[in-house]
Design goal:
Elements lengths: L11 H4 L19 E6 L14 H9 L5 E2 L4 E2 L5 E6 L6 H17 L3 E6 L5 H5 L6 E5 L19 H9 L4 E6 L4 H4 L8 E4 H7 L1 H11 L4 E6 L21 H11 L3 E7 L9 H18 L5
Parallel strand pairs: 1-4, 1-5, 5-10, 6-7, 6-9, 7-8, 9-10
Antiparallel strand pairs: 2-3
Helix pairs in contact: 2-10, 8-9, 9-10
The chain binds manganese (II) ion (MN) (2 copies).
The site of one manganese (II) ion (MN) has 7 residues, from loops.
Length: 301
């Protein structure tokens, strides 16, 4: 752990977009990598507690404390083909940021590599989703994010699931952990085009049985977006818009383990170190390891 090095970088046309702080296990050069990590330090549309622009740095620093080897997966992350590009240079304009994320993730996925994006606020996810064809999406979120527009902006972080529905179409999105929805969203005639699975129902029926149903609902190509506020504030206090009565950290780990092999793109968003006690950035770092571990492992969960 903690080498913070990078063997080489042979992707000059993307290099100018990024700075240089790295995830310590992301030792691969771009061309031989399987997973391409990058941060998007943007929180321009966040309405309540800002600070998610500081999350990529805080997640990388937390990661520095994790072991490179995981006994459950029997995977050494330093040998699993991660390349950390650093952070995207972002403007103040959400439209430009989402366009840049679209471009970068499109290039990465076009080379059959898997983007791992560190937000930043949730709106950045829309850029990645724009590249998906015949794919489905699994979201962890306390909020339905289903407003057609918020504060006059269709790319506000309160509109992410709605924008994803525009792109992917009906019956392609499961959002897990829902417990905060405005009346406008609740009464939307498109609400049933997305499966909003509440944290209360997960608690009542158990994550294992719900995971079976989620797997049936989704296609074999899944984009996985984790808004950290989907997890209970007890586990993840450092978020922009906390909501009580959330998912357990291990519920999310279980979904990653069950569905990880199908995932073509992954992000962790809405983490805000300003309100953190250290646990949220550590959990975010661990979820990245769980994701790569689930892809790389031969073990069954
Ligand atoms: Mn969200
Ligand atoms: Mn949320």
């Amino acid at each position: 752990m903690g080498n913070n090095g990078n063997a080489k970088d042979n992707v000059p046309e993307l290099k100018e977009y990024f700075s240089h702080l790295k995830i310590p296990d992301a030792l691969s050069g771009f061309s031989e990598s399987k997973y391409v990590i990058f941060g998007v330090p943007f929180d321009g549309t966040s309405s309540y507690r800002r600070g998610s622009r500081l999350a990529p740095k805080s997640i990388r620093e937390a990661y520095d404390n994790l072991e490179s080897y995981d006994v459950a997966y029997e995977v050494d992350f330093s040998e699993s083909g991660m390349c950390d590009m650093g952070d995207l240079s972002v403007s103040e304009d959400v439209g430009e940021v989402v366009d840049e994320v679209e471009y970068v993730t499109g290039r990465i996925m076009g080379l059959n590599k898997i983007p791992i994006m560190l937000g930043g606020e949730h709106s950045v996810t829309v850029g990645a989703v724009r590249n998906l064809k015949d794919a489905s999406m699994l979201i962890i979120d306390a909020h339905s994010d289903f407003r057609d527009s918020y504060m006059g902006d269709k790319l506000n972080h309160a509109c992410v699931t709605r924008r994803a529905l525009d792109i992917l179409g009906p019956d392609r999105i499961v959002s897990v952990g829902t417990r905060s929805t405005s009346r406008e969203e609740f009464e939307s005639d498109r609400k049933n085009d997305v499966w909003f699975l509440s944290s209360a129902e997960v608690r009542e029926k158990g994550i294992q049985s719900m995971a079976d149903k989620i797997e049936e609902y989704l296609t074999d190509n899944v984009y996985f977006s984790i808004d950290m506020d989907g997890i209970d504030p007890a586990y993840a206090p450092g978020v922009g818009t906390p909501e009580p009565y959330g998912l357990k950290d291990s519920d999310v780990q279980y979904l990653i383990r069950r569905l990880g092999k199908k995932v073509v793109g992954f992000d962790v968003v809405e983490m805000t170190p300003v309100y953190d006690n250290g646990n949220t950035s550590m959990l975010a770092a661990k979820l990245i390891q769980d994701f790569v571990g689930s892809k790389e492992t031969r073990n069954k969960f």
